[in-house]
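Known limitations

Structure tokens in this collection are predictions and should be treated as such. Users comparing against experimental data should check residue numbering before alignment. To illustrate the layout, the record for Beta-lactamase-inhibitor-like PepSY-like domain-containing protein is reproduced below. The input appears on top and the generated tokens appear beneath it.
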Amino acid sequence: MKTLKITFVMLMTALFLVLPSCSKNDVNVTLTPSEEVVNAFQQKYPDVKNVKWEILVGAYEAEFIYSGTYSENGQHIILDKVEAQAYITQGGKWVRSEFDVTKDYQDSSSLVVPRAVRETIAAKGKKVDDVKLFDWSDRNDYFYVEFDEPDSELLINFDGTLY
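Generated tokens:
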């Protein structure tokens, strides 16, 4: 009987240690958002295919590869196969999109990241880890720059000024 108790306690201990390490991310679930959400995405990005959806608190995130023209204040930027995310409320309102333009920043011949933005980044003298273009529905768009140093980031307007 004592052996049975010890075995039971060991089994329960093992379960309590193993089960918390399992997460919902380990399960591959196909998510289909509502028609309103899909329509809002298709209206903003009609040519995009192969969208991966995730549900967040109060919104959906669409992950996709984007190729197309981005326009802001008369500036036109051609994005070519950049990783992107769009955020859309559950009610079907597009909130913002993010475009990963790190590789374009690293390519000095690329025109995706404007010269004024590049100069502001260079003036910091830090190694750049990530550069994203944020496209908002209700505020000015900007470039988000994350440096290799912890807690070191900038928001930069298209004219190179800090956001």
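For this record: The CA atoms of residues 7 and 27 lie 30 Å apart. The chain is about 25% helix and 35% strand. Please report discrepancies through the issue tracker.
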